[in-house]
Structure formats: structure tokens, C-alpha cells
Amino acid sequence: MASFSEPSKVAEEKKEMVVAAKTRIDYYFSLGDLVLRFLVFASAVVAVVVMVTSHQTLYSVPAKFNHSPAFIYFVAALRVAGLYSIITTLFSFYALLKPGCCPKLLSHLVIFDVLLLGIVATATGSAGAVAYIGLKGNTHVGWKKICNIYDEFCKHVGASVFVSLFASIVLVFLILLSVYALSKKIPK
């Protein structure tokens, strides 16, 4: 009888070790997810604040972010990204406290993360294009460069676009991490 109980005891211990390893891996994925979502939030807030505070007046002619539709779209898109990241950070924190709680929610978050990446990337691209025209101008259509005159405004816009680009890159890593974590949950 003792010989039959020994292998089952070893099998149970192995099973417990596998479950403990999986929960540890889930914990690390959830922690990474939480950190990346917080980074998206922080970079979105910083980009919005820097863009909104970008104004300069010379010779009674102001340069403000709301004079360009691309910059307005940029601010709106990053506000959405900030709000979304607050909400998903709370979900991620909940998933960290209760590992393995809601794989369906995580799969939906991946889809929304991809949509948000599209929104943030297009906003970054449009603001970057307008900023580049402000920096270099376009002689073919007669657009003069303005960054040699409104240097502080252009520095703010450039910094905001750079921080937004960082947010886009963090979103890419967040999507990769989420997809990898979900692929580990697929039964084999």
C-alpha cells in the first residue's frame, strides 16, 4: 500500500509546483501589465500638459496649439489615452490581486489596446507632421518655417510629440506582453 501512495504523493507535489509556477508567471505578467499601463497614463498626461501649455506671442501674433486641427486632435486623442489607461490600470491592478480571474477581460483589453495604439499613433504622426512643417517649412507651396521665430512654442510641441511617441512604443510593448500572456493561457 505504501508503494501506491508514494507516486500519487509525488504527482500531487509536482502538480502543486506547476500551479505555483503558473501563478508566479501570471503575477509577473500582471505586474508588467500594470507598470506599462501606468507608463502610458503618465506619458499621455505629460504630452497633453506640454502641448496645452505651448503658447508664445511675438509682435502681438500668438502661436497656440489650438490654432492647428492636428494639434487639437493630438490633445483629444491623448486625453482619451489617459482616461483609458486609468480605467485599464485599475483592471490590471485587480488582475494582480486576483490572478487568473478574468481571461476574457484581458482578451478584450488587447483589442482595445490595439485600437488605442492606432489612435495615439495617428495623433502623433499628424502632430509630428505639422511640427516638422513648422520647423522646416515647405518652399514648394510657400509655407514658411515658424520655429526660428516661435522657438519656445516649437520646443513644447516637439517635446510633446516625443513623449507621445514614447507612449506609442509603450503601447506596442503592452500589446506584445498581453498577447504573449494570453497565448500562455491557451490549453495545449
TrEMBL record:
Family recorded in the similarity comment: Belongs to the Casparian strip membrane proteins (CASP) family.
Species this protein is from: Striga hermonthica
Classification lineage: Eukaryota, Viridiplantae, Streptophyta, Embryophyta, Tracheophyta
Protein's name according to its UniProt entry: CASP-like protein
UniProt membrane topology term: Multi-pass membrane protein
Assembly description: Homodimer and heterodimers.
Transmembrane helix keyword on record: yes
GO cellular component: plasma membrane
Position of the signal peptide: none
Entry annotated with the keyword Ubl conjugation: no
